Amino acid sequence: MSAAAPRLGLPRRARLLSQREFRRVYQRGRRQNGKLLTVVGLWQRDGRGTRVGLSVSKDHGSAIRRNKIKRLLREAFRLERPGLPPNLEVVLIPRVRTDKLVLSELRRELVDLIGRLGRGEQPRRRDRP
Hints:
129 residues; alpha+beta; Ribosomal Protein S5, domain 2; 4-stranded mixed beta sheet; 3 helices; 4 strands; globular
């Protein structure tokens, strides 16, 4: 047998689960907006590792569609997690779209938005039509 590949799973300790944890990130965290996502991030000192929470509203459609979006967001985070800062808690909020989300685009935007959070950039304003 060959050596086991490193596990890239998303363990329970890597997720924000309680309403209290979400509320803390929303109240104290900083926000970055992108084309596909809004990321709310809070830097922690305790070094629990990078943690993620998902917030997908009913505006996205049926439970089936919302669950699909959550699976894509979790997968994007799981794949990018090794390269993310180890002391960050983020809540990912997808924008309402009619077209399908693409994993590679989600991954690219997730890294970009978290990078902007780390650099302390001010959130970009969206141009309204």
